[in-house]
Design a protein that fits this description.
The protein is an alpha+beta fold. The protein folds into two domains: 19-60, no CATH class; 69-175, no CATH class. It has helices at 67-82, 95-98, 102-114, and strands at 14-17, 26-35, 40-52, 58-59, 62-65, 89-93, 130-135, 138-147, 165-172. Strand 2 (26-35) and strand 3 form a beta hairpin. The chain is elongated. The structure holds zinc ion.
């Protein structure tokens, strides 16, 4: 499954810095128009002229990514999916797990939704996207995959709830 090329500036957690001094205080020329209903000037369009408020120079912004911010956002979205509160989210129960009966499946789903003992060892990517657990003597795995809206490619931005369809799969370890 492929992934489309994406502009860094379109990703969650992206921010511009000054090409000259590295400051985050980059401002951009823009036009505002009067909004009669809200009685204020509102942004109409942005222009391609940037100035750095720190060094005072005209600049071309360089884009950076706040990776920790992205991880935090991904953890939150994955947590919402596990708790059944996610948008653009699907939960898949494998056939092997389904065969264990409705009561078993329901208890497992509740157990997965309540998980909060994530650590360096069991969550090395810090995304809360995979786990192993024992339930009534059965070894189980759960994992979260990130797809794009068409479900044919990987998500261009797993930190974006609108660009991503999340799929939580819960399975018997023997089905992995
Ligand atoms: Zn600067």
């Amino acid at each position: 499954m492929g992934q489309k090329n994406i502009n860094i500036a379109d990703l969650v957690g992206a921010y511009p810095i000054c090409a000259g001094c590295g400051s985050r205080d980059v401002v951009r020329d823009a036009w505002a128009e009067w909004n009669f209903a809200t009685v204020e000037w509102v942004l109409k369009t942005t222009l391609d002229h940037f100035v750095c408020d720190t060094c005072g120079e005209e600049t071309t912004p360089v884009w950076k990514l706040d990776k920790e911010f992205r991880k935090k956002r991904i953890r939150r979205l994955n947590g919402a999916l596990r708790r059944g509160e996610g948008e653009n989210a699907t939960v898949v129960i494998t056939s092997g797990l389904q065969a264990r009966g409705e009561e078993f499946v329901e208890a497992v789903c509740i157990a997965v939704s309540c998980l909060d003992d994530f650590s360096e060892d069991n969550d090395p990517h810090k995304e809360h996207d995979f786990g192993a657990m024992d339930w009534q003597g059965e070894k189980l795995f759960w994992k979260i995959d990130y797809y794009d809206q068409s479900m044919t490619m990987l998500s261009p931005d797993p930190a974006s709830p609108t660009a991503t369809r999340r799929v939580l799969t819960i399975m018997l370890a023997s089905e992995y």
